[in-house]
Amino acid sequence: MGLVPQCGQCGTAVTDDAGRDLLVPSRLLDGALRRRLAAEGWEVIPGTPGVNRGPADTIGGDRLTCPACAGRRERAADHARPRVKTVDLSAKLGEGWTLTQRADDADRHRWLVEHQGTVRGYVQRYRRASGGFSAGWEAYALQDIYQFRCEAVSCAQHRPGSSYLWSGRDLAAWGVATSPPFNADRPDWATRTRRATA
To answer: Do residues 45 and 62 touch, judged by C-beta distance below 8 A?
Structure first.
């Protein structure tokens, strides 16, 4: 009898080198397989042989969490850290939209983009290879366990040709909130005004 070890949360199966479901003789995995899974980002809680009542015992056997589920849990814990600063963007993005910052986010120039308390993404100043920060902003939208960089629309780019950098923090948040097409117009609230010349 063979068993396929899998994530206890989502059911993702452990696979072999060829991508096929891996068959093992028992839910108590051997040390080499435990080390391989840990190297691949799986969380492995070893079972207890003393209480194991057979190869398929779910109590005494190893408990596995796949990298995606482990990452989702860590992200949820990270997003739950207390906020120290909040900026209301309701007038610009619609009811319930805010930018929030946690204690250690200020040093990174990072803000969470939230809608009615749910994190929808984040914006942060771009860090140059030299370590300094650019005036341009990166925007990332979160979807399930994935994050996607929001490319700046042509009218809101930091500089011509810098498609991944937005010219302002609130514009980057607008990108997360609305996913505008590349040729979208700049929102009314972000219209630049020319300085009067004497």
So the answer is: yes
Distance set, CA 141 to CA 105, 113, 144, 175 (Å): 17, 9, 10, 9
User: In whole angstroms, what is the distance from residue 31 CA to residue 36 CA?
Assistant: 9
Mean pLDDT of 89-99: 95
Q: What is the reported pLDDT for 101?
A: 94
What SS3 state is found at 86? strand
Whole-number Cα distances in Å, 1 to 18, 37, 47, 63, 177: 21, 22, 19, 19, 51
Cβ atoms of 158 and 137 closer than 8 Å: yes
Total Cβ atoms within 10 A of residue 27: 20
- Strand 110-115 and strand 118-127: the pairing is antiparallel
CA 30 to chain CA centroid, Å, is 32
Count CB-CB contacts under 10 A for residue 186: 16
Residue 156 has pLDDT above 60, yes or no: yes
Q: CB burial class (10 A; 0-12, 13-18, 19+) of residue 111?
A: buried
Give per-residue burial for 40-71: e unless 16+ CB within 10 Å, then b: eebbbeebeeeebeeeeeeebbbbbbbebbbe
* pLDDT tens digits for range 72-86: 666 655 666 778 899
Which residue in this structure is represented by tokens 């979208």?
A: 184
